[in-house]
Amino acid sequence: MRQSTDIEKIFTTELSNRNIFLTETQLDKFRVYFQLLIEWNQRMNLTGITDEFGVYFKHFYDSISLSFCVNIDQIQTLVDIGPGAGFPGIPLKICFPHLKITMIESLNKRVTFLNEVINELKLSGINAVHGRAEECAHERKYRFQFDLATARAVSNLSTLIEISSAFLNESGSFIAMKGPDVADELSAAEYALQQLRVKKTRLQLFDLPQELGKRSLISFERFELTPFKYPRKQGLPFNKPL
To answer: Which CATH superfamily groups domain 4-225+232-239?
Structure first.
């Protein structure tokens, strides 16, 4: 069984290999985040991964991997759709404090957890919003407002593209965080891409450290404004994907 110090050493080494260098303050925030996750998970369903090694690499590192395919220094505003226990939004905020992050979560009890983490870690410029993404995307304060939108293990690509495209500003992009087998999803999303005026710009595959699995990061950009009727009303993007 690995000790916490060994896990942190591997974690920091793997991130430094990606030119991400954590301070002791940032490491301490990850420690507190892990403790809060385990504590709250005893009361509500946040994650099935509870061992420290798994959380650090299958959640924290995997969340931070978003920065592998985008110049994060050029990103100011990010919307995280369906963050659940805060992934990828909170790990990204810890690593890249300049980001202004909005996390849109449909379950209020998870929003309560996210706000607890934000308060305990003393994070600023990040907030958790209780709402459905397909409804928030029609609100003026969110529509066409973000440099980057992302979703991790939320739904199929057709649904995610429909929900996310309306959040993006003129030069914004959406990155879907997926497992390794995405060919069928990409093929099934062709109609959605056409309807939503979106194009795929990049597919990046990478391995999680310690042979923990493969991941895909798929980038999309709008080439025209998202038609006003999208995303469709509550539930439709999920129940009847384009």
So the answer is: Vaccinia Virus protein VP39 (3.40.50.150)
Contact (Cβ atoms closer than 8 angstroms) between residue 55 and residue 33: no
End-to-end CA distance of the chain: 46
Looking at residue 179, its pLDDT comes to 87
- How do beta strands 198-207 and 214-222 pair? antiparallel
Encode pLDDT of 13-71 as tens digits. 999 999 999 999 999 999 999 999 999 999 999 999 999 999 999 999 999 999 998 99
d(CA 18, CA 37): 26
Domain ranges of the chain: 4-225+232-239
The CA distances from residue 206 to 33, 57, 107, in Å, are 25, 13, 31
> Which tokens go with 142?
């969110």
